[in-house]
Predict the 3D structure of the following.
Amino acid sequence: MAVNWPGQDDLLQWLDKDLNNWGRWGTDDQKGTLNFLSQQKALNAIQSVEHGVQVSCARPVEFSASVDVPRPPQHFMVSAGDTYRPDESDEREVAMDYFGLIFHGHTVTHIDSLSHFFWNGQTYNGRPSTVVSTAEGATEFDVMPSTGGIVTKGVLVDAPLLRGVDYIERGDGVGVDDVLAAESEHGVKVESGDVLLLRTGQLGRRSITGPVDVWKDGSSGPSPELLPLIHEREVAVLGSDTGNDVGPNPYSKFTNPVHQVGIVGLGLWILDNAWLDDLADEYKRQGRWEFMISILPLKLPTVTGSPVNPMAIF
Amino acid sequence: MAVNWPGQDDLLQWLDKDLNNWGRWGTDDQKGTLNFLSQQKALNAIQSVEHGVQVSCARPVEFSASVDVPRPPQHFMVSAGDTYRPDESDEREVAMDYFGLIFHGHTVTHIDSLSHFFWNGQTYNGRPSTVVSTAEGATEFDVMPSTGGIVTKGVLVDAPLLRGVDYIERGDGVGVDDVLAAESEHGVKVESGDVLLLRTGQLGRRSITGPVDVWKDGSSGPSPELLPLIHEREVAVLGSDTGNDVGPNPYSKFTNPVHQVGIVGLGLWILDNAWLDDLADEYKRQGRWEFMISILPLKLPTVTGSPVNPMAIF
Amino acid sequence: MAVNWPGQDDLLQWLDKDLNNWGRWGTDDQKGTLNFLSQQKALNAIQSVEHGVQVSCARPVEFSASVDVPRPPQHFMVSAGDTYRPDESDEREVAMDYFGLIFHGHTVTHIDSLSHFFWNGQTYNGRPSTVVSTAEGATEFDVMPSTGGIVTKGVLVDAPLLRGVDYIERGDGVGVDDVLAAESEHGVKVESGDVLLLRTGQLGRRSITGPVDVWKDGSSGPSPELLPLIHEREVAVLGSDTGNDVGPNPYSKFTNPVHQVGIVGLGLWILDNAWLDDLADEYKRQGRWEFMISILPLKLPTVTGSPVNPMAIF
Amino acid sequence: MAVNWPGQDDLLQWLDKDLNNWGRWGTDDQKGTLNFLSQQKALNAIQSVEHGVQVSCARPVEFSASVDVPRPPQHFMVSAGDTYRPDESDEREVAMDYFGLIFHGHTVTHIDSLSHFFWNGQTYNGRPSTVVSTAEGATEFDVMPSTGGIVTKGVLVDAPLLRGVDYIERGDGVGVDDVLAAESEHGVKVESGDVLLLRTGQLGRRSITGPVDVWKDGSSGPSPELLPLIHEREVAVLGSDTGNDVGPNPYSKFTNPVHQVGIVGLGLWILDNAWLDDLADEYKRQGRWEFMISILPLKLPTVTGSPVNPMAIF
């Protein structure tokens, strides 16, 4: 199945005009599509829970380098349990650690804030990209507007299940037909304020094949043709078990069209590298296709996103 | 009000015997008091939600050094928006960052896993403390057992409100009387699997007074006399708006009795530096004293805890 | 004694024209004033050594935060000696560590490469400042051109000794008169290829007073009026026991005139925060005022300088 | 050529007794073999310089992960030149960076201090290994005693040249015969206070073959049979273009015999991963086999060594 690539001019028109949300929630808006969330929406999702079954959508952080993790997360112990010796002071019996990471990329489950991408020197809502500076970080559009909590309805589109394959190939994407198939076959509906999760099976496959050089071997993810649907349905957060852009792509101007049009134009919050295999399994067990989801980004002022542990509850 | 300090021998007996949970959930148990969580408990908490109002219990991470943050978190931009210049390549229009931190301490909202403290060379459940090594981190008792999600009922004990003061003084603690007063006056009940949150007002006060040298000027927190109640009521997670131990204390052997007896003896998960002022305000607005709480630690293998953004929902 | 501030227009003219070395050593030059070094110059310095007495001009790196070290260097042990226990494996008996730092600033002894400052979007030698990028570091003008070794004659101007005071006050600078006084009174001569070291006594004073907020309380250092002399005498490296700019200054355009005119205009290599008190003491003991100096920056490609341990030999 | 492995019992006897320098320079000694340095020794080396030709013995630090650099050095810009835009403030025209690294290992040119290895819970000079702690670093035997400067005579043993091969194979070592051959054929003499540099050609070869997994594919380096000679000749610093231990080895107790016997028993300072190919070339050009060498470790209190840029001068 080949990706149905929109024309580059279409993407430009979507970004600038058709799907553009600049000013929609005021000139000072920093929340973008999180404006589709609401107390009522959260309540509905909460009230849809039937069993209290929780499924984590995060994969463990790996602290080792690999072909898709050229700059690995760091972990150092500041004190540890092996420093204790019998008959020495009790004082030392504490463990503490330092960890640090570049969460953007292809392996850490994280959310992108609206400062992760720019277009022609502008951010979402038309601010100059200089508001995100090397010296001070994201003085606007950091992850903070999301830290009041993303609690809403989640919808999973399990593209391999729908297509009857093991996984969506690198270079292929999850498109409009997959979403519509999920709606017709699984009885779900992508609605305003939802977290839309697209499963390709690629992250689970990495556990089998080992790390993959996504810059060389390509990647799966949402097809950019989904952008109008995402806009129309008022999706709050788009996520998948990939870096959320199909590669390679045919464009001269767009390296990451879903991020570039989505973040800059729509103000779309994106969840990268979500672990969706357990969710897919639970889905099948439950026999129902709606769930509550909680995404609780860390309160990291001036940071362009956050590692997260999204939790689906049935 | 003075802290009613238990005798040191009592603490030792609690740790070793009276409140000791070693083996209670099997010799291989890594979850400790999270065993009090259950699907039914989660469902009950979820079904108690009436309005969908969300209140974050995290304070923003500060990236600057201060008297109580001697080793500040780090934040570096790997790419930023101010590097863009008109008429140059689009490729550069992305922002990425590195952040890293020692989350243990007195300012970052975080959860301690069961490897954070030891006693006489042993961890909770009687394993040698060498399982937490300088070179490899927490090979057991890391934060992973909590990453399936802590979704349960939360109870807030607002000690200053109950006592009619602005805040609990440094050197004073929240004790059994405060919890019982909350139960009788606010109609709450601390039950098996609950997250018990004790508010002292000290973290909010830091916003006014500026950073405080807790090692010199003391700290508030849960009094160790609470430990039997915590054990009896089967509290899953104990949290407060402090580092969760009163300082200074009168003991020769215990620097942090709540952590030392709680973590090592009970297998108690502890939430440090929670931001409870917004929760206290919402409490008053809601006129009800029970809420659902979600704590979703990051999936950090071998790490002794995680920064978190706990979310209360009414 | 007040600083004899040159006019801002003079500084601009120096930078652009009078003292400007762009193209002097070719359009591709990355060495700037290190071109004044030579094999013969090194040999002369080496042959001037009489006793083999070595004096380090570095101060110890401090790993703790203070008012002039807001982002302190980091040091973590990856393995350590306290992890050993009797009768356990030998394998663990190794210590390793991670250290990291922002060396620029006011406490670490370090050398600035020619990418540390820019002027109107240009580097030394007229390259666009974009050659030093957030994502890739200093793709030009990094510290590498100095790593063949700076071995040459050193000259110390001990300004407090010459003026008969304990130290040069913050807000005051070491000027032309001080250098000329050193030449006439101490029989030294600042010549082509020399490392010129200006002592203010301020770094030694910090050991007594504790950390000082240089951004608020000012700083001593070389007066910008020295720049023509530095140019004329063909100084290879300018150093002092300060951050090498007097603060505050009267300019609207120049925050750090010595750095800005020196680095960008002259291609001057600057040694910040050198420890000169031991050197001053040795000076007095030796009764002679010339020495060999070795500065051996680390081979750090794309980095804008290096911490160093400059060694004077008499 | 096979390594002539000493028996394990010999190594133990060397460490404990025959080559043991504990107490030789006092019970408080922290300098070990640097005690062989002297002002006169430095002066002799300085006076042996004929031409002023400088040759760096450091290789550039690599900031990317590879099979022999699993935890790569870090480099982040705190401010950079690409953040400047025409007609904006001059203030931003500065570049600063953070770099950090684990220098021990197989690629960074660095010196080991006497806290890098332990034996049975003891350091060199019989102190408990607990003086090097996870929480505080090397409270003894850090790199500081070397920061007064290592300026002395250097001797290069170019083993491949002497053997008429391109490089010494992994698994093979540079042994006594190589050193004696260098002495008889090249007219050098290894004497008290010298820096002895052994070239295998392996680091240069890495530039051709790419990174090698030394833990799997083995390593070259000094054979442990050299230890008595090193002791007898009173070598101050032993260095090579390897990690300084041959691997694999036949011992059950020694993973790194040269480090373990050398550092702990002799108090030997070791220079790892020196770049010796340029030195070998210069050697051939000069037709003489003695040189002055300067090793100037950074002043890093509590750190177990330092990256360095050793400079040979002919």
Q: What stands out?
A: The CA atoms of residues 142 and 303 of chain D lie 5 Å apart.
